[in-house]
Amino acid sequence: MSSTEPRRSIATVCLSGTLADKLTAAARAGFDGVEIFENDLIASSWSAKEISEHCAELGLSIDLYQPFRDFEAVPPDVLARNLRRAELKFDVMEQLGAGTMLVCSSVSPDAVDDDELAADQLHLLAERAAARGIRIAYEALAWGRFVNTYEHSWRIVRRAAHPALGLCLDSFHILSRGSDPAAIRTIPGEKLFFLQLADAPRLQMDVLQWSRHHRLFPGQGAFDLTAFTGNVLAAGYRGPLSLEVFNDVFRQADPAPAAVDAMRSLLALQETLGVTDVPPAPELAGHAFVELAVDDVSEPRLAEALSGLGFAETGRHRSKPVRLWQQGDARILLNRTASGQQGSASVGAVAVESADPVGSARRAQRLLAPPLPRDHRAGEADLSAIAAPDGTSVFFCRTGAETGDSWLGDFTVTEPAGPGTGVTKIDHLALAQPFDHFDEAALFYRAVLGLEPEPVTEFAAPFGLVRSRTVADPSGRVRIALQSALLRRGDWAPKVREPQCVALSTGDALASARRMRERGAPLLEIPGNYYDDLDARLAPEPALLAALREQSVLYDRDEHGELLHFFTVVLGGRVFFEVVQRIGAYAGDGAANSPVRMAAHRRQREAGA
Fold first, then answer.
1. What is the CA radius of gyration of the chain?
2. How far apart are the C-alpha atoms of 553 and 145, rounded to whole Å?
3. Dihedral of CA 218/222/227/232: which sign?
4. Cα 530 to Cα 555: distance, rounded to the nearest angstrom
């Protein structure tokens, strides 16, 4: 970590497992410190002193002990009990070596709406804490009974006027209420004791339930954490950037990759703030190739389908069982390796054209993307590769022959590309993600490749609700659509649980569809009901509607342009191809047509196609 970078911390509540599991995961991910969540300490078999010693061995500081609830603005007898409780917690903190305690604004029915009383009692608490070398960070809960905004909590802290009493600012509590964080700049930096960061999707629901179940790591949600954190730093805050995320998925996930995801989110946030040493993301120029893992059963079927789509087998790898199929600038590699169940095929790798492949690899490494070792012979291209959260390999390369080190040189030419069917390049990939990796995958591609996420969309599919989020570079030349469905239980489920789509670009979808059908491509048939509804919804010109119906081409339109697209059947169990024509500035993926495509794929599988 650079000496100019803020320290990075994480609350143990963010991670799954025992306290020992959480601390180990945080340390291995590179965090400098932790917030000890009280429930984790209570459930631990270690004493507070042993926890302190273990953190020291791991290189972790204990930056905060939390939470201390329902303290202020209460009657004298309740105050006495609260002070006794606080003194006992101070004992624990002394053993932990924790110097700051988080005090949440009260939700107690004993509390009254009296700022002066709250300030007096917090002053008393701070006085006792200071005598033990401890500071009190007062936080306004978004659902606090009387104090639920940071402006209100600051008025109380200012009135209390004690050097050991300051604020804890939590991005969720502030942004979920729609508060303007700009006024944070007016708070003296020395009174900002702690900063907790969490992102979240925009939801219309009870704020407590929203907070307890739907927080996300920075960059995974809809909050503008760059502006929020920028205001806090501009006020003079010099403490750690700490994550406090309550999320049902994260709390059940393996803590090791979850902690890495958390660290990656902070590094990416710091990049937007200009306080990091992460190398910039080199410009991307498109998809260099997609590699499909096949076996001796699925390869012939994929090869036949590619031929029908107008591809030609143009090369064979010099030392590996890999064949190159090409049409225009669209390149598909068939890698005949073990791919799981016999006859299956899957997207094993995607390569992106990078202006600086080495720079892309350095950035990936700094953002904790696991590098993948690759065997290559002398004279073969040494491509940098990393692993995406779902196991897909991501390569950085330059394909042009003028570089002198193009990966194409690893292939012996078998035949030149033919006239084809109008396919010009790879338009995008659509990769289904396990539901517990959806947000992690979006952050991975955003941070590591520098892609920008589009808003999350949801659509009702034949087997339940599907979430979708596309990440793309500013030019739209690299696009990856991530999709996920909730965990399904029981036997009633689609046979293709995690489908993968390779979308190809054409300048004339109807002409490409006709030529592909003539070549015997296994194209998906769309029912007539779709076109009857399309006529009612969007009313395309009658001649266009008839042509769409004849070729089973789907259609979408928005204020920016139009989309024509069609699909193959599912090949090798989970892979299928899409051919798209974008007209104007249409930048979507035709999500409105996805349920129709899914139902058609279901009929195809039932028919045994």
1. 28
2. 57
3. negative
4. 10
